[in-house]
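From the pipeline queue, job 12 of 40. The input is one protein chain; the requested action is below.

Action: predict structure.
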Amino acid sequence: PGFAIPMLTNKACPPFDPESWGKAMEARKAWATVDQCEAIMNENLEKLYAVIKDYPDADLPFEIDLPFVEGLRQSMADIMAYPYWNLSYHLGQICFVQILYGDKEMH
């Protein structure tokens, strides 16, 4: 959820270059346990909820360019859904890798 917050508050995508990505990955190395990751996620979710709760309706259609696909523009309303979309997308990947490793049991 932390990636969507600056997009909503600044109405622009933060830098997505190798240097910025490397800094973000380096910071995440301190998240050593599942409990730490969950705590940070919950903190970031609370911050995201606060931004969404107070977001002006008039700004919802405002669009920004995103670096993931050339020509990709998304509205602030769409950006609010990014954490959900991203989690769903990656959960599917994780489940697929789980199956590739032979774990076909429902958890």
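Job complete. The chain has a mean pLDDT of 91.
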